[in-house]
Amino acid sequence: MITLLKVAISALTSFLYMNIFKLSKIRKMPERERVFKSRRLLKKLSKRMLKSAQITLEVVYIDKMAIDQLNLDDGIVFVSNHQSNIDIPVIVVGLNMPVGFVAKKEMESWPFYSTWMKLSNCIFLDRSNPREGIKSIKKAVDIVKDGYPTVIFPEGERSTDGKVKKFKKGSFKLALDADGIIIPLTVDGTFSVQKRGEKKINSKKKVKLTVGKPLKLKEMDKNLKNTLNDYVQKTIESEMWKKQSNNDHLNGIN
Predict the structure, then answer these.
(1) CA–CA separation, 122 vs 90, rounded Å?
(2) pTM of this prediction?
(3) In 3D, which of 129, 102, 138 has the Cα closest to residue 117?
(4) For a FRET experiment, which of 78, 231, 237, 253 has its CA 20 to 30 Å from that of 34?
(5) How far is CA 112 from the centre of its chain?
(6) Is the pLDDT of residue 252 over 50?
């Protein structure tokens, strides 16, 4: 529980500083300046949280050159597996692009977090209300098209065992309607930091974020688009299997 306390204190002090010294000024900024300034501040906060938990983060790009050549106006959607609450700070810190999130509706009521998530153009998705969910996705599509990269977790909730769960087809409506670019993200190791349903945070863990090759929807075959959820899930799972295969090899398992 000591690590949890350290992370909580780090987040609280950062939010207090941001609210006292940054909030009023940022609210007066033009939208684009406001959004990216807020996202940069959230990245600083996320770095402090990972440092407090003594997490070692490894970031691997499958094709960094292709990522670096993208423009924000291309309509970028990052699609990630979801192991833990720690996934969000890991992704924010690991990516070289300022991102927002499609987050669960409950986060809209979280103190401090919700204020800065709204400022950074995050979307709160109510999965229990299909009509409101559609409205939220439409809003997210506009945000992506306006040049604000966004992350979505198509499993809908955190894994209960660390394994990748079925990617919901509806989650890909954001990327398909934006007709932009999907970048798969594989988060590996955060499950051992904090499991779903547990408050305890385990320190001194290694976490790996793998950034996949961009998938350009404008150039994608219609049949592949129809099974996009399965394709992206297999892409992410393959990165998880690589680690398992390497571990089995080191342990002498054939």
Answers:
(1) 17
(2) 0.94
(3) 102
(4) 78
(5) 19
(6) no
